[in-house]
Amino acid sequence: QKYSPEAALYALPDHKLCVKSIYNYVYAHRIKGVTVNSLPYARPKKDKRYKTKRKEFERGKSIEERPREILKRKEYGHWEMDTVQGQKKKKGCILVLSERKTRQELLFKLDNKQCASVWNTLQDNWDKLKHHIKTITCDNGVEFSTNCELSNNELIEFVRTNLYYCHPYRSGERGTNENQNKLIRRFYPKGVDLSEVTQEELNKIQDFMNNMPRKIFNGLSSNQFLEQNEMEYLQT
Hints:
The protein has helices at about 5-10, 20-25, 115-130, 155-160, 175-185, 200-210, 220-230, 230-235; strands spanning about 60, 80-85, 95-100, 105-110, 135-140, 165. By secondary structure, the chain is α/β, with parallel strands linked by helices. The radius of gyration is 19 Å and the shape is globular.
């Protein structure tokens, strides 16, 4: 089911195994149909010598201006935003929103990686999103520039006051995003054409991610953790 070994153990009602034993069995080829390449994070490291230079654009608020309390992950509603790309010559990509406290995930299909596509998608969904989003932190990709026209005054005001940009080449400032993107890559490895992906397919992956057992929540899923703390978040 594309779980990691640790998540798979949480899904078992009764077991006497530890995570290290599972990994040892995988490396020793003792689990039928499972190889090292089956592991979610078994992939080669990038060569950092060949970084592409980002296009420059006028940015809004720096992450340095973001309230420091957000780092503590005590309050629900602070999200990180990114895009997951497919084949370089294809336009399709995925808009990813990750909530820092609960690791709740939202996925949206984009027709292309342009700022108008990103903000129009958020604008179309803003009425149901605005009650759950207090801030958004994104990277310096040109798709997150605000050089496009918006008609929703509430979203315009949000972008002006509650959108923050990370420092260039500091993906660790969006660590939740980066970890969640690895889960998406279990379904869509790099190089896959995302132009034919449907929103219905993304909804299924979103449900998978939000219902997957997580070590950080002692085996609860993001949805279960959110439900358990729902009254607290509604009050804040």
